[in-house]
Amino acid sequence: MTIEEFQSLEAPLQHWTAVQKSLWYDLKGNWKTAHDLIDQLGGTDAAHVHAYLHRKEGDQWNAEYWYRRAKQNVYKGNLDDEWKDLFKYYAP
Q1: What is the pLDDT of residue 66?
Q2: pLDDT given for residue 92 in this prediction
Q3: What is residue 73's DSSP assignment?
Q4: Which pLDDT tens digit goes with each residue over 21-66?
Q5: Sign of CA dihedral 66, 71, 75, 79
Q6: How far is 82 from 70, CA to CA, in rounded Å?
Q7: Domain residues for 30?
Q8: Mean pLDDT, residues 66-88
Q9: Can you say whether residue 82 is alpha, beta or left, with left for phi > 0 and alpha for psi between -120 and 50 degrees?
Q10: Are 43 and 18 contacting, i.e. CB atoms less than 8 angstroms apart?
Q11: Has residue 12 been placed in a domain?
């Protein structure tokens, strides 16, 4: 699925993972729902998106915590590029 196809959907698809749904809600401007979907999940995939969401929120300390949990380096680029990288990695 391309980013354009992903973005054009009216709702996330039911079979998507919580990580994929979180990315879709964030893309649509719904940070809270994106965060709520992964807030209590375990695993490095959820932690990776969780880190991005806290970085986007401006909570750098919390973002760094989640990058460590995800076993990822803190992203140094802009938020749009980070979202695209996450999409490439976790795309449906």
Answers
A1: 98
A2: 87
A3: P
A4: 999 999 999 999 999 999 999 999 999 999 999 999 999 999 999 9
A5: negative
A6: 14
A7: 26-90
A8: 97
A9: alpha
A10: no
A11: no
From first CA to last CA, the distance across the chain in angstroms is: 6
Record the pTM.
0.94
Q: Is 7 a domain residue?
A: no
Give domain status of residue 20, yes or no.
no
Residue 7 is predicted with a pLDDT of: 93
Cα(85)–Cα(76) distance, integer angstroms: 12
Q: For Cα atoms 68, 46, 37, give the angle at the middle one, nearest 5 degrees.
A: 135
Token pair of 15, please?
């079979």
- Which residues are within 8 A (CB) of 36 and not within 5 positions of it... i.e. 6 or more apart? none
Residue 9 falls within a domain, yes or no? no
